[in-house]
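Suppose you are handed a protein chain with no further information: no name, no annotation, nothing but its sequence. What can you learn? This example shows the usual starting point.
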Amino acid sequence: MVLAPDVILASQSIGRRYLLEKLGLRFRTAVTRLDEDRITDPNPLKTIAKRAVAKATEVVNNPRVYSVPEDRDVVVIAADSMAVVGKKTYGKAVDKLDAARILKELMDKTHTFTTTVHVVHMVLGKVKKTWTKTMTTRVTLRKLTGPELESYIARYDFSRFAAGYSINETPWDLITKIDGSYTNVIGLPFEVLLPILRTLKIII
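A reasonable first move is to predict its three-dimensional structure. Written in structure tokens, the prediction is:
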């Protein structure tokens, strides 16, 4: 009997879990202990890519810690997302006040929401192949009034999401335009992930 691949999502992102569940995938999550803030590069896109790769590498290099089996195929899915304006990046807010600060800086303008997906395919405990791809989506936010912003932050804990907002939980018309992948802004672009999963015969 051939065992199905053990799919591991190296992320605690609610949005990424939501997307994999929508695909009907059987998977488990592995929350890495990386200090992501220490992984940086002068180029914002390289910072995002390095963090995505580091998450998967942490799981692959510590099979006992993350219960990575050696007797079956393993697929580790990692990703990192940020909003980018010029050379400035906006990741997860540290708290609601920080989320309000980020939103104030992003409102009434267009930013680039960027996600790097890094997938590792392991066979019998050894890395067989890796994929790394970055996708960008241009997102325009409208300007909230002071009371609107206060209510927005009070109702939802947007410190859990990159750039302080979540496209699939936004209760109002904060986002006025999206140019590119919708699932990218949730944190796991299907345009990147689905071809890889089909290559691995995890989905049809």
